[in-house]
Structure of Sepiapterin reductase:
Amino acid sequence: MPSYLVILTGANGGLGKAIAQSWISLPVSGPISLHLVLVGRSKKALDSLKEELIATQSDFQMELTVSTVSDVDLSQVDELDEHWGRIKRATLNKPYDKQYFILNAGSLGDLSKPISGYTTKSIQTYMDVNVVSTLALTSHFLRHCQETGFKGKGYLINISSLLAIQPFPYWGTYAVGKAARDMIMATVAKEVREDQVRSLSYAPGPLDGLMQEAVRTSLGDLEQQSTYQKMHQEGKLVTCKDSATKLIHLLLEDAFASGSHVDYFDE
Ligand SMILES: NC(=O)c1ccc[n+]([C@@H]2O[C@H](COP(=O)([O-])OP(=O)(O)OC[C@H]3O[C@@H](n4cnc5c(N)ncnc54)[C@H](OP(=O)(O)O)[C@@H]3O)[C@@H](O)[C@H]2O)c1
């Protein structure tokens, strides 16, 4: 029976939760075992998601187990190694045929200011949460795959954004962070053989959730703010469920170029 491990950061949030829900609704064509490791800050929310996933999962062909790793605040970079240790233990250190690490957690930063309004402290905090943690956890995951002798193929997935490849005013820290995360995935694709680890940056589209709500109310560029408000009013935002489903299909088809940036709207 094929065995999959999925480690997911930001599991409590809009897209993260939808990704977890999509994994347990996989179109299964035979028996599989799936071990989900949900990583986040709030223990209460993670426990309730775990309960929901176990209660909803109905396909008798899927052997599902779920672990949670709470109190993982990615701004506390001094604790990242310790957090990884807890994540690693939660994987149960078993050999899996495929091991997915989905780096979904991310923050918006302050969109009310252009670059000339930034403070050094705010830049540092933003980069810690969104870039330093991504690079450090990627490094840990690659070593973990090496230690297990690449017995199962590894997949590193960065949740990216259009902002990683296209600049817009007032999105400075966010765009820099997403571009850096894309480059981490691209570099992994150059450093590690594809039959060992494959990497992907997935831009999920403008999602109908809390992050977009913050964009609509806090973006300092009023022209863009009204564009986002219009998209919301006209129902043009993407649902987290649709975007998560697209990501899972991309991963299962396994046809993407390793290290590439793929957008929800790509054919
Ligand atoms: N929303 C969009 O339109 C959009 C578009 C393109 C890309 N994205 C990307 O998609 C991903 C998910 O976004 P979303 O829309 O689902 O937003 P969300 O609902 O705000 O979720 C963000 C997740 O990141 C976690 N997070 C934020 N700061 C953290 C920290 N310091 N330590 C640990 N976890 C932290 C949050 O944890 P808590 O639950 O504990 O708060 C939450 O689970 C992000 O990487 C985002 O940049 C979103």
Q: What stands out?
A: The first helix runs from residue 14 to 23. The longest strand covers residues 32-39. The chain has a mean pLDDT of 96.
